[in-house]
Amino acid sequence: MKDLLELRNEIDQIDNEIVSLFEQRMHISEQVAQYKIRTGKKVFDKERESEKLKTLSSKASNEFIRHGIWELFEQIMSVSRKKQYQLLGAEGMLEKPDFTKVDRLVEKKPTVVFQGVEGAYSQQAMQQFFSEQHDSFHVETWRDAMEAIRRKQADFAVLPLENSSAGIVSENYDLLAEYDAYIVGEQVLKIDHALLGLANADETEIRTVYSHPQALMQCSKYLEEHKEWEEISLKNTAVSAQKVKQDAKVHQAAIASPVTAELYGLKVIKEGIQDNQTNCTRFVIVTADPVYQKDARHIALCLELPHTVGSLYHTLSHFIYNNINMINIQSRPKPDKNWEYRFFIDIEGNLEDEGVQNALGGLKEETSFLKILGTY
Ligand SMILES: C=C(O[C@@H]1C=C(C(=O)O)C=C[C@H]1O)C(=O)O
């Protein structure tokens, strides 16, 4: 039997040949790219790649090798495509995202819409993002907020997208995919929930607690200690505080921000009742036109993939290959197709970065649907 050193020497020789052949192959792929630049032909030729995978894997001597050849050539062709996207990109032949770069997001005093009533966390996020320089109004639902910017009644809407302990606000992800609206900013707000009641209320006498489902979720440990309380979901935490004040019943309480206690004349029965003391919600600032601030560092994407083996894996390879850091990935069911999903992915980068343009060019060709939800 050959010793290890001998075997490794043989492997090294074969690898050297593979490297040299790979270089030759890539050089030809570059020439194919030049042909595509001249003719406008798309980079990704799915049929040609399927044919190649079938032909090459059929040459294998056993099932294990067949599988290996398949994987290997999928990767080789994927790298070959990435080089072609780069070359097409350098010639300005990749479709440019239809976004306008602006120096400043806010030129004149903007009108901002938020969901809920006075004192809502969305209002607090809005105040932090726009400081004092804005007019605002509130609407009943997140969809109403989207409609308000669509009809140009407001310049911007503020929507909660995810909470550090309760997770995503799925309805707003779906609205971002549905509407022609674009994320232009984000505001992270520290969320401290309090139990609020009438001036003469007492924790021991509470029977019903009102809040938004997300806030109820974020206070689940505290509510576990009070299993006898009936939990009722309302559209907003501040709406819940308003209701407790209006109903004027001593056994009713709301989970909301301590700010709303002052606004609606309620007493703070207990403060800091959220499970997680670092509880934060990430809000996004949305507008009707595809604009972005010149120093934007994040891009939010929504994409749909064919139901085939490895499609998500190949999608993510565009980020990896272009050295792009992915900061978030979520999936949501497609509205009219059971058990099919769309992905929401946030990446780091600016639309002017070469790597971002190459990755987006590749994704545009290789996914069944790609929308840039905004850049901030
Ligand atoms: C090289 C080409 O471009 C792409 C890469 C392929 C490859 O590396 O074999 C095959 C098909 C295309 O998706 C080509 O079109 O032939």
UniProtKB/TrEMBL annotation:
Site entry: Essential for prephenate dehydratase activity: 281
Domain Chorismate mutase: 1-88
CDD domains: ACT_CM-PDT, PBP2_Ct-PDT_like
Subcellular localization, as worded in the UniProt entry: Cytoplasm
GO CC term, one of those recorded: cytoplasm
Pathway: Amino-acid biosynthesis; L-phenylalanine biosynthesis; phenylpyruvate from prephenate: step 1/1; Metabolic intermediate biosynthesis; prephenate biosynthesis; prephenate from chorismate: step 1/1
PROSITE patterns found in the cross-reference section: ACT, CHORISMATE_MUT_2, PREPHENATE_DEHYDR_1, PREPHENATE_DEHYDR_3
Domain Prephenate dehydratase, chain residue ranges per copy: 111-288
The EC number(s) this enzyme carries: 4.2.1.51
Tagged with keyword Lipid metabolism: no
GO MF, one annotated term: prephenate dehydratase activity
Chief location category: cytoplasm
Residue ranges constituting the ACT domain according to the UniProt record: 300-376
Cited Pfam families: CM_2, PDT
Catalysed reactions, as listed in the record: prephenate + H(+) = 3-phenylpyruvate + CO2 + H2O; chorismate = prephenate
Keyword tags: Amino-acid biosynthesis, Aromatic amino acid biosynthesis, Cytoplasm, Isomerase, Lyase, Multifunctional enzyme, Phenylalanine biosynthesis
BP term (GO), one: chorismate metabolic process
PANTHER family (alphabetical): PREPHENATE DEHYDRATASE P PROTEIN (PTHR21022), PREPHENATE DEHYDRATASE-RELATED (PTHR21022:SF19)
Function: Catalyzes the Claisen rearrangement of chorismate to prephenate and the decarboxylation/dehydration of prephenate to phenylpyruvate.
Protein name: Bifunctional chorismate mutase/prephenate dehydratase
Organism whose genome encodes this protein: Agathobacter ruminis
